[in-house]
Design a protein that fits this description.
The chain has about 290 residues and is an alpha/beta fold. It folds into 2 domains: about 5-210, P-loop containing nucleotide triphosphate hydrolases (Rossmann fold); about 215-275, Alpha-Beta Plaits (2-Layer Sandwich). Helices cover about 35% and strands about 25% of the residues. It is built from 10 helices and 14 strands. The strands form 3 sheets. A 6-stranded mixed sheet has the order 6-7-8-3-9-10, sandwiched between helices. A 4-stranded antiparallel sheet has the order 2-1-4-5, covered by helices on one side. It has a 4-stranded antiparallel sheet with strand order 12-13-11-14, covered by helices on one side. A hairpin with a 2-residue loop joins strand 9 (about 195-200) and strand 10. Helix 3 packs across helix 4 (about 130-140). The two termini are about 40 Å apart. The structure holds adenosine-5'-triphosphate. Adenosine-5'-triphosphate binds near residues 17, 37 and 40.
């Protein structure tokens, strides 16, 4: 198990800000944490990384209790840039991370090049722009090649080239087995990174209700649409007609197989399948309709 959060509740005085969060991640994934301001994303990440205590529930990370000091080597957390020291250089920050994580300093140059900060590595952080600070934060959390990477708003201030580079790095880490949980308000960038979104609202995860929302739309072209309509109607499988030869189908991957089997069993030839992802923004709109209309 990579992450297991059971009934996590967090209060600030009388305000319950996390209302019983449950998460289970058992194989590497990229998960986006999306929700309105104040919905509890940062609080959840801080509780998971033991930066904040909580009143109820428990958290396990990589099979260990989240307070286990050994996790420090395998888990990284990108927080906001207030953790940086203006008087120190980027190199100083990375050297510090190397010394506490027991990593060879020779990795610094490599990671600086990877995130694109080699030209200002030796400059003091107080002279960095917002985006430059984000580059440094990214370098600090990937230098140890973590098994779990948590990120709170990593895209703040990044220009399109840097955002693209960050995406490339995150996808490479994921390919090498890192699980990434990233909170972000940038829904376009989320769409490019992952289709797994945990929506948060008022301290609760709306993940479960997502099953009711189609994540993908399939446009399926067939050789005999009239016959296809008849067999689908007979089987009570819903669809839409998108053009003369094309059926639209909004469902999960498993049910797509039923749709295809139904056509195959009736000798209807599928000549093309186009997948249209239902984007994070549309899913956000459906979940937060009330807030958006008020
Ligand atoms: N130190 C604190 N003391 C009291 N309440 C707090 C504290 N930090 C956060 N909160 C409250 O906890 C709730 C969740 O805040 P949190 O920062 O986790 O939300 P968020 O989803 O990360 O928001 P944003 O998208 O704006 O970053 C909010 O109601 C906030 O006011």
């Amino acid at each position: 198990m990579i992450v297991e959060v059971n009934n996590l509740k967090k209060r600030y005085k009388k305000q319950l800000v996390l209302k019983g969060i449950n998460i289970k991640v058992d194989s590497p994934e990229i998960i986006a944490l999306v929700g309105p301001n104040g919905s509890g994303k940062t609080t959840l990440l801080n509780c998971m990384t033991n930066l904040l205590s909580f009143q109820e529930g428990d958290v396990k990370v990589l099979g260990k209790k989240h307070t286990d000091a050994n996790l420090f080597y395998d888990v990284s957390y990108l927080q906001d840039n207030r953790i940086l020291y203006g008087n120190l250089t980027g190199y100083d920050h990375l050297k510090f991370v190397c010394s506490v994580q027991k990593i060879a300093v020779s990795k610094i140059k490599e990671v600086a090049t990877r995130v694109g900060m080699e030209t200002y590595l030796r400059k003091r952080v107080r002279n960095y722009s917002l985006g430059m600070k984000q580059h440094l934060l990214l370098a600090m959390v990937i230098i140890n090649e973590p098994k779990l990477l948590l990120m709170d708003e990593p895209l703040n201030g990044l220009d399109p080239t840097s955002a693209l580079n960050m995406r490339k790095i995150l996808l490479e880490l994921y390919k090498d087995g890192t699980t990434i949980i990233v909170s972000s308000h940038n829904l376009d960038e989320i769409d490019r990174l992952t289709n797994t979104i945990y929506f948060m609202k008022d301290g609760a995860l709306l993940k479960e209700s997502l099953q009711d929302i189609a994540k993908k739309k399939y446009l399926i072209t067939v050789n005999d649409i009239e016959k296809a309509k008849k067999v689908l109607n007979d089987k009570d499988i819903s669809y839409s007609i998108t053009d003369q030869y094309q059926l639209g189908f909004e469902e999960t991957d498993t049910e797509l197989q039923c749709f295809i089997d139904c056509l195959n069993d009736n000798s209807i030839m599928i000549t093309d399948i186009e997948v249209q992802k239902v984007g994070a923004e549309k899913r956000y709109r459906e979940l937060f309709e009330e807030e958006l209309s008020s």
